[in-house]
Design a protein that fits this description.
This protein has 441 residues and is α/β, with parallel strands linked by helices. The chain has 2 domains: 50 residues, no CATH class; 329 residues, Alpha-Beta Barrel (TIM Barrel), CATH 3.20.20.140. It contains 11 helices and 16 strands. Strands 9-10-11-12-13 form a 5-stranded parallel beta sheet. The protein has a 4-stranded mixed beta sheet with strand order 3-2-1-4. Strand 1 and strand 2 form a beta hairpin. The longest helix is centred in the middle third of the chain and has 18 residues. One of its GO terms (biological process) is purine nucleobase catabolic process.
């Protein structure tokens, strides 16, 4: 037995997911940090000295997930989503850290003044910890270093139209210049990689028309463009939401060549297929592709070519999700559902919770330089998730915390239920926002 008197919380589980795999442990929390890890049997649930001892038994204990790709849209398009609703949804889905994207809010986060406007809009509303990306657009090259110094985790650019006029894309020269500038202070540039020269207007309203209008080759060529510029400048670059298997070999080769480039994918590319698309709730850019393509993404994830799985939560109001795929808003709402969606597919493919923690917590945390997030280890933030890995539920969009209840997962039966989420050792109650702002180094 160990003395629990000095801890605010002790959580026991026979399935604590650590870097070493699943272990039977008691996780002891002091001052919001994981202060000690002890054997499961070293404490019992009826120890009177602890303020709180939680025995999960066979319910798994995961590190809080880290989602580095979330479009919160506040201020300016708060009717699409907002910090209060997005962070409640995140916590309900086992996510304890999000990093907000710079576009879709008004103003977009392309200078320090806009970053401060966004922080003011988020103040007092966040149920999980929140960081921010800046934006790289034509004409704001001199703003990139000040944004970095003000605490953004990196800057995002588009190589094709973003869908909102206030966040235009960079051309090839603009990308090279942005990477050179970011490289000068060892920052990070993240890129939406589709080559606009290979995109075209869909010839009709059906999903097949839309899918054909955004071919894999468009993604591959844009990824190769980022690789080329990253290699030339020595800067660190990251490809967001990879959907196309055609991108994987260029990424593999770049890694072999020592280029400082990483890439991610998203739950919808790993769990949904073009063959099953049933309506505009499935529309996103780049698009959901065929089942064989999905298999290749899973292989690349297991291999480490893709370093993480993040939501790309990109909501809109329901009226923008019109039946015409050419006209519908492109974005998927999945912030609350990413963990069970990925887990359902992962376990069917023979993966375990250790892989889930690596892909959805450790990998994204490492991308943005947060070593104290996404892990269950002494010294880390006590961000924890009680995850009933064997429980099933049917998704009801009306029960989600997202502001607008549109999701392609509605009606799906998924495996894995989040029972409790702790942020720095305190259960998230959805009434009292306790999230903090995080800053990059």
């Amino acid at each position: 037995m160990f003395d629990v008197a000095g801890f605010e919380l002790v959580v026991r589980s026979r399935r604590v997911v650590t870097a070493g795999g699943e272990r039977a442990l008691a996780v002891a929390v002091r001052d919001g940090k994981i202060a000690a890890l002890h054997a499961y049997d070293d404490v019992t649930a009826d120890v009177p000295d602890a303020r709180q001892v939680v025995d999960l038994g066979d319910v798994a204990l995961l590190p809080g997930l880290v989602d580095t790709h979330v479009h919160v849209n506040e201020p300016g398009r708060t009717h699409w989503e907002g910090f209060a609703t997005a962070t409640r949804a995140a916590a309900a889905g086992g996510i304890t850290t999000i990093v907000d994207m710079p576009l879709n809010s008004l103003p977009p986060t392309v200078d320090v003044a806009a970053l401060e406007t966004k922080r003011r809009a988020a103040q007092g509303k966040c149920h999980v910890d929140v960081g921010f990306w800046g934006g790289a657009i034509p004409g704001n090259l001199t703003d990139l270093r000040p944004l970095h110094d003000a605490g953004v985790f990196g800057v995002k650019c588009f190589l094709s139209p973003s869908g909102v006029e206030e966040f235009p894309a960079l051309d090839r020269a603009g990308l090279r210049d942005a990477l050179a500038e970011v490289g000068s202070f060892d920052g990070l540039l993240i890129a939406h990689a589709e080559d606009p020269a290979l995109l075209r207007d869909p010839p009709g309203p059906k999903y097949a028309d839309f899918l054909g209008s955004r071919p894999q080759e468009a993604e591959r060529r844009a990824v190769e463009q980022v690789i080329e510029s990253a290699a030339a400048t020595g800067a660190r670059a990251h490809i967001v939401h990879v959907s196309a298997a055609a991108c994987l070999e260029p990424l593999r080769q770049a890694r072999r060549d020592g280029v400082r480039i990483t890439a991610e994918t998203c739950p919808h590319y790993l769990t949904l297929t073009a063959e099953e698309v049933a309506g505009p709730a499935y529309k996103c850019c780049p698009p959901i592709r065929e089942a064989a393509n999905r298999d290749a993404l899973w292989e690349a994830l297991a291999e480490g070519v893709l370093i993480g799985v993040v939501s790309d939560h990109s909501p809109s109001t329901p009226d923008l999700k019109v039946p015409d795929f050419a006209a519908a808003w492109g974005g998927i709402s999945s912030l609350q559902l990413g963990l069970p969606a990925v887990w359902t597919e992962a376990r069917s493919r023979g993966y375990g919770l250790r892989e889930i923690a690596r892909w959805m917590a450790e990998g994204p945390a490492a991308l943005v330089g947060l070593p104290y997030k996404g892990v269950i280890d002494v010294g880390a933030d006590a961000d924890l998730v009680a995850f009933d890995a064997d429980a099933e539920f049917t998704v009801d969009a009306a029960a989600l915390h997202h502001r607008n209840l549109v999701t392609p997962y509605h009606g799906r039966t998924l495996t894995g239920v989040v029972r409790t989420t702790w942020l720095r050792g305190v259960p998230v109650d959805f009434l009292t926002p306790r999230g903090r702002f995080l800053v990059g180094s």
